[in-house]
Amino acid sequence: MFQKGDIVRWFETYSDILMVKDTGLGIIVEIIELSYIESNYRSYRVYRIRTKDYMSFGESDLEKLKGD
Which residues of the chain are modeled with pLDDT < 50? Predict the structure, then answer.
């Protein structure tokens, strides 16, 4: 769904409840493929523009911005 270089809106949530505590824009810099038992997952390393740092997110915590 996402590709390296995509500009996305990220959503940081609290770990124990599905409530957003922060959001912003970022750029996907790495896609990490993970396998657990017989399931495959993707994790996305995102450079967060406002905070000038990197953080990993799952697909459900990212939204691709429209446009080319």
Answer: none
